[in-house]
Amino acid sequence: MPRSPQLPRIERRRSKVHGWGVFALEPINKNKRIVDYAGEVIDYKESLERETKYLKRGEIWCFTVNRRWVRDANVGGNVARFINHGCKPNCYSTIVGHTIWICAARNIEAGEELNYDYFTDGEQVIQCRCRPGCQRKL
Ligand SMILES: [Zn+2]
Q1: Number of folded domains in the chain?
Q2: What are the distances in angstroms from CA 5 to CA 11, 84, 100?
Q3: Residues 12-42: pLDDT tens digits?
Q4: What span, in angstroms and rounded, lies between the C-alpha atoms of 41 and 78?
Q5: How far is the CA of 89 from the centre of ligand 1 (A)?
Q6: pTM for the structure as a whole
């Protein structure tokens, strides 16, 4: 799907942190929208069942939109699903209606890996790998 020319160019590449990551291909100004977190909209109960399955594989795909709805990026997701978690991130998420926007938390240089805080509220079974020695569980 062609992306809006208004949005900065980003690319999925192998990450030094974990698996795939998403990298800026151009400088991105603070607070600029970068990409929306796409995925099937499902209700909260359905998301709990799917999350249990994903967590067993060490994966996090479900992003809470609000108390009723969740987006599952494993179904119909876009490049945003490869953005890694960071405890000291350069991006943040903001929700407008049912759209989850990933925005720049500061000025980002071309070539930087993007990350944002997942703020997971689940079972916290996955060790955070945002940096060496991070003690957080996701
Ligand atoms: Zn961490």
Answers
A1: 1
A2: 14, 24, 18
A3: 999 987 789 999 999 999 999 999 999 999 9
A4: 14
A5: 9
A6: 0.91
Residue 111 Cα, ligand 1 centroid: separation in angstroms?
21
Higher-pLDDT residue of 18 and 6 is 6
Which DSSP symbol is given to 81? G
What CATH number is attached to the domain comprising 68? Answer: 2.170.270.10
> What is the whole-number distance in angstroms between the Cα of residue 13 and the centre of ligand 1?
20
Q: Tokens 């490869």 appear where? A: 82
- DSSP code for 8: P
Q: Is residue 102 part of a domain?
A: yes
pLDDT band at 4, cuts 50/70/90? low
Distance, in Å, from the CA atom of 90 to the CA atom of 6, rounded to the nearest integer, reads: 20
In a domain, 129, yes or no: no
Cα–ligand 1 centroid distance for 84 (angstroms): 10
User: At residue 123, does pLDDT exceed 90?
Assistant: no
Q: Residue 78: which domain range?
A: 10-116
Query: CA-CA distance, 40 to 98, in Å (whole number)?
Result: 11
